[in-house]
Amino acid sequence: MADVVAFRKEEPGGLLLREANGPVLRLTLNNPPANALSLALLEALAAEFDAVASSKDVKVIVIAASGKVFSAGHDLKELTLHRADEDGGRAFFERAVRLAADIMVKITSLPQAVIAEIDGLATAAGCQLVASCDLAICTDSSTFCTPGVNIGLFCSTPMVALTRAARRKQAFEMLLTGETIDASTAKDFGIVNRIVPQQYLRQVVDKYASVIASKSPQALKIGKEAFYRQAEMSMADAYDYAIGVMVENLLARDAEEGIGAFLGKRMPEWKED
């Protein structure tokens, strides 16, 4: 397994901290105290995803957060200020909610694996962000909820990601009650992959990222796209689609190299596109 090297940090301040560590890019939400997804923070996330989408250097993206809250979701104070707009806030609400939704779609569309690193509360659109990531690893003290119903606002957009990560009845339970669930329940529901003690969170996430980054970037790109596309198909259609993907993958350069390396009992040498 290749070691992660070439550590560097960028943007020591700001709403979104960027840390590049070899093939792993760490993006840290930094909007204290609740890491609310303000329009500015959403725009920063969108810009990072757009910039990295075609990168040959970044293999894995980690989304983390500073402080005791992963993210409390949309910035309710910011939204409320725009009720004074001539249209009652409609245009701003549409802009903020659509941008958040676009970011969730971008996550699944990126060729890189995206890992959520959660230490604290992930609520509403913050929970939506966790559910949208390819993998999610949290501390044993982390909590999750979609509490919109408590303030007269059903979490309709978080619902889209949640119902695709958790089992349907469990997702609807969260949406209907607005109650907070602990890390163990979130794992049972399917929202997170693994729970670790707080002191080992970064170490475990870095290990996952390093392992994934050592794989064929060509195979990861093909596989991630196929994973999300087939998930929305019937079983018969999914197999028809997956057969085509598998054949094209077998014909690809990295599959030829990987199989040859396995048969020759040597380490594969992946090449960039």
From TrEMBL:
Pfam families: ECH_1
Keyword Transit peptide: yes
GO MF annotation list: hydro-lyase activity
Taxonomic superkingdom: Bacteria
GO biological process: fatty acid metabolic process
InterPro entries, alphabetized: ClpP/crotonase-like_dom_sf (IPR029045), Enoyl-CoA_hydra/iso (IPR001753), Enoyl-CoA_hydra_C (IPR014748), Mitochondrial_ECH-domain (IPR052377)
Entry keywords, A to Z: Fatty acid metabolism, Lipid metabolism, Transit peptide
CDD domains reported for this sequence: crotonase-like
NCBIfam families registered for this protein in UniProt: PRK08139.1
Sequence similarity: Belongs to the enoyl-CoA hydratase/isomerase family.
Function: May play a role in fatty acid biosynthesis and insulin sensitivity.
UniProt protein name: Enoyl-CoA hydratase domain-containing protein 3, mitochondrial
Native source species: Sinorhizobium sojae CCBAU 05684
Phylogenetic classification of the source organism: Bacteria, Pseudomonadati, Pseudomonadota, Alphaproteobacteria, Hyphomicrobiales
